[in-house]
Task: structure prediction
Amino acid sequence: MSRGAAAGSWQAARIVLQREWLLAVRRPAQVLQPLAFFAVVTAMFPLGYTPELAKLRAIAPGVLWVGALLASLLALEHLFREDASDGTLEQYVLSGQSLTWLLLAKTIAHWLLTGLPLTLMAPWLGVALGVPLSAATGVMGALALGTWTLSLLGSIGAGLTLGIRRGGVLLSLLTLPLAVPVLVFGAQATELAIVGDSPTAALYLLGSLAVLGLTLAPLAAAAAVRIGLE
Amino acid sequence: MVVLYSLQLAAPVAELVDATDLKSVGRKAVPVRFRPGAPQLCMSSLVVNNLTVYRGERAILSRVSFELGAGRALVVTGSNGAGKTTLLRTLCGLIEPEDGELHWRAQKLSFRDAEYHADLAYLGHEAPLKMDLTGRENLRGLVGLRRKVDSRDVDAAFGEMQATSFADRAVRTLSAGQRRRIAFAALSLLGATLWVLDEPVTNLDRAGEALVQSLLTRHLSNGGMLLAATHQPLGLEASLCDSLVLGTVPA
Amino acid sequence: MGTNWAWFHRFGSPPHVYRLAGLLTPWFAWPAGLSIVAALYGGLVLAPPDYQQGEGFRIIYVHAPSAWLSVMIYSVMATAAGIGLIWRMKVAHAAAASCAGIGAWFTVVSLVTGMLWGKPMWGTYWVWDPRLTAQLVLLFLYLGYMGLRSGIDDLGRADRASAVLALVGVVNIPIIRYSVEWWNSIHQAPSVMKMEKPSMPMEMLVPLLLMFLGFTLYFAAVLLVRLRAEILRRERNASWLREALR
Result:
């Protein structure tokens, strides 16, 4: 009854990544909106506080991180919701492949389409807040690790809130407290980078969170998705 | 050949089933027994025993049992809300049952075992297609998770379902019937032995129905198994079909 | 080997737990009351005022136990939820659901008492002290848990989803606490705006430990009462209940 060889895990992951990429290309608005949100939110702070760059530079790490956090939360709503409503997520569950692995592939795709662009945008938004471009690598390094961990954490919440009406707010409420360590370490790394000190200690802490998230979060997300699809 | 269980007795089946203590579906279990000694039990590839599913506090399914052998179809009928979709989804492992046993090819497995899933394909009410992708891209995505597929097979599958003319349009622009044909084209390439279908011929016109009928018949004659919940007749050969009727029994 | 776990699996039976909880409640409630009264007497009347902080420090008799308990209750909740998830025991899920409200209230109590402590000490109701901040995040975790439960209609699904959340939360709590302390140590405020526990002579320590004990027993008693109510609510259509009420 079988045609062709059975697909291995790498092939399945490739299929998932390809599909996410195609969908992003067909619906660019969905990918660009969180990025626009990041820019808009960052612009609100000077308007609400002061135009003086020196003063803005003092709050820049917090503003950048909170902005990236909120933008990521916006994007996380789309991680599983549409796939759950049109039945594709069920097909993932039933594919015979490890659901943990497939969801990890989806989360990686999500980060590449959200977290990574946010990271690349951040130094430029930082310039608007008085952050020198020399700090760019530190800022980007911290945000890359931070948004990655956030995507992983958020996938758990996204799975748990599947099928809840207006689950977006609940998703934020669930994910933000869990994201406190990421915020704390990330903002400190950014601050150190801005001031010119070496951010390595904070980056290591961020990195350990990222690794911990990578090992545990996909398992929790798979459990959450199974429960959410019932 | 295959012995039937059901919660609501259909007349021709009645003489095969000895039922005791039938009550309306609720917390009290409804044990329905059968007469042992029926032939060819060992050939059954799918055996389900005592499947009980609760939704909230209501028991939607209570002690459902059946067997299905290779090359045969089990047609599940019942009124709205009787639990047909719940039964299908539980059999696929999407819903956790309160109680129940699964034997797949003489092995006791859980409904979530990868070994079982590798041989199973499920098609729900809605075709599992992404609106923004074309039929071809959707099919590659669905089938590619399971097996490598080349373009000749894809073209052949579309040809069988007469979907070639709209295979490369975005699914958003297609009608429900066209989407269903694409879903069936994907189904035919999955290489699964057990097909679990929820309302397979909804939204299809006569031509589509005929295509699906021939697809299903071919699947059965190749030794595949079919489990379908439906309101409409599927047009399969009666000798290949068993019936399972779900529903509440008045006390 | 199999029968060794029979005592454990009997806890899966709602009527059994219901009866047991009813029997045990007074055994927790009375000692709780006695402990708390004794601790209050010892702390408010017997113990001398702290040479540094005066009478205000006495709020620690409520603040420290409730803070400790708020974390302990989350662990109990996560353990119960985990048992419910792995062994599919509805009673365990009911226990987790009953814990949530108690834990949230203890967190609120610790926050309020912390604020009341801060006002006479440093003239402000709120400081971003690592302990207070961690308690605040813990409150958000509790609110998230309760929000998830109430957001899902199907009870079984709500049980399982909130169990996953509780387990994820319990793993994160130490990480969050560590990160908050790290954050606080990095941004050391010029004045020492920290809630230093006063050094503890015996007259202060004994009432404090009694209070810890009293609060814990109180939690156990309230949990049992709430668990019984939760079991009644969940099992209202069950035959054993109808039999019992006949």
Q: What stands out?
A: Chain C has a mean pLDDT of 86. The interface with chain A takes residues 137, 140-141, 143-144, 147-148, 151-152, 154, 156-157, 160-161, 164-165, 167-169, 171-172, 175-176, 178-180, 182-183, 186 of chain C (CB under 8 Å). Residues 105 and 187 of chain C are 30 Å apart (CA to CA). Residues 62-203 of chain C form one domain.
